[in-house]
Amino acid sequence: MAEQTLLNVIDRDGIKLVRFRTGDILREAEAEAIGQELLKLAVKPKQRVVLSFLGVLHLTSLVLGKLIHVHKRLAASGGEVRLADIDPRIYEVFSITRLDRLFRIYDREDEALASFAAEGEGEK
Predict the structure, then answer these.
(1) Rounded to whole angstroms, how far apart are CA atoms 114 and 38?
(2) Which of 100, 101, 47 shows the shortest CA–CA distance to 74?
(3) CATH code assigned at 53
(4) Which of 23, 51, 66, 105 has the lowest tally of Cβ within 10 angstroms?
């Protein structure tokens, strides 16, 4: 049986745009699989990632731990993950846990992608 991924990864000018393939991430096995898939993106130095939560309505707190781990791994190699399209109920969890201070969060994925491009232009 072929391995099915829980994430859809698209390369946009060197930025990895990542979308969830499911709207409910409630099982430990799903959180672990997502964590492993995200860590694969953190292997390349200075990797920039936009993680879109579009369509995600429920998630286990284990996913938050995986996001923190990926954030740390990316930051250690000069990369970064930015979040977008977070449902207000899920955003409330980010706010309560103060993860909204750790991550740069955008209303839409195109804004998050553009934020990397805008910074790149400033570096020239």
Answers:
(1) 21
(2) 47
(3) 3.30.750.24
(4) 23
Give φ, ψ of 23 to 5 degrees. Answer: -95, -10
What is 4-66 written as a DSSP string? Answer: PPSEEEEEETTEEEEEES-SEE-SHHHHHHHHHHHHHHTSSTT-EEEEE-TT--EE-HHHHHH
Please check whether residue 78 lies inside any domain of the structure.
Answer: yes
**Mind listing the pLDDT tens digit for each residue in 27-53?**
999 999 999 999 999 999 999 999 999
Q: Tens digits of per-residue pLDDT, 75-110?
A: 999 999 999 999 999 999 999 999 999 999 999 999
Token couple for 12? 């946009």
Owning domain of residue 119: 7-123
* Higher pLDDT pick, 53 / 1: 53
